[in-house]
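Contributing new records

If you add data, match the layout below exactly. Sequence lines come first and carry their own label; structure lines follow with theirs. Keep one chain per record. Anything else will be rejected by the validation script.
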Amino acid sequence: MPIIFEMPSLSPTMEKGNLVTWCKNEGDEVAVGDLIAEIDTDKATMEVESIYKGVLAKILVPAGTHDVAVKTPIAIIRQKDDTDEDIAHAMENISNMTKVNQNDELAQSEKSVEPACNTFLDTKHSEVSASPLAKRLANEYGMDITQLSGSGPHGRIVKQDILNARETLQQSKHIEMNANRPRYVDTPATSMQKLIAEKLTKVKQEVPHFYMSTKVDVTSLINLRKKLNDNENLDTKITVTDLLVKAIAVSMSEEPGVNVMWNNGSIRHFNTVDISIAVATDNGIITPIIWDADKKSLMQISRDIKALAVKAKEKSLSPEQYTGGALTISNLGMFGIDTFYSIINPPQASILSIGSARKEPIVGEDGNIKIADIMQIGYAIDHRAIDGATAAKFLHKVATNIQNVVVALVR
């Protein structure tokens, strides 16, 4: 009996996906574990392996199709004893099921596919020597890869060739736009941007946020960072965010009342301290997680953050790397932002917003005025899971551990 291969759910939040490319053609044999397709989810572009053995008899959804709902039939796999009649019968059943269910999402996604996109993916890509990432980027940017010259080995087109060509194209478009003086340009939102918009709208409407803030003297933290980075034996440069993550993780272990989330009428208490870091990408913000952050060394935290940030920007994070955590840290200090309050990252219960460090006069413990590096931290909290007193105690511990970061590092 033929197997109906459906659009898989590749993340806990995935409802739709973009079918980027088929890695097998109709008539190709498929073994268990073979790479069969690449799918663009709300979080990353992921390779899909077959869990079936047989022959790819029919591709139902062409490469380049956007917004394909999870569980939509996308291909038919012929098993050993299947006949052509069995395949035809399976296709008829799928057609009837589509009509009965009035699958508007699938119909809409099929309408959104331009024929040029299918031809581009099915024929032009197969004829050009290019890396898989270069092909995906070319498809995403709507570029004709056959018109490009490759800088890789034997003229292979690589990622940088696509980025260079895109920059040139954008510059020419900018000149043309200025000449025509358009009033505005609409660009379609990506799957990730749509999901972010839906989730944040929902959480802002349904989660009772409350806010508090504190100012922190980060003079010692900045001085420590400079001393650490002056050490030539370190294999990675320490950032302010690295030090903040360690200090905040220690604070969470000391005040476990904030290491929680609201869970449909109950409060879930976590036994590990797992912190999400907001990373800006071209498609929006994604929040990879530093697991067991309170137990990791500063160097390991720094390596983890850098590696996860690269994967986030390349859309290659696995679901395990961005699903979970009780708190998110969003740092906009590098952009000169003094104060801001982020929207809570669902289903977490709180988020810390880090501003930039500014030199300000303060009164020291000896009563004398001195100049210090002062940072403001905003804190948004889900009042269903965390009360005001608990949040205040935690934020006080955060300030204390940041100001005494050397002590926090040895805990």
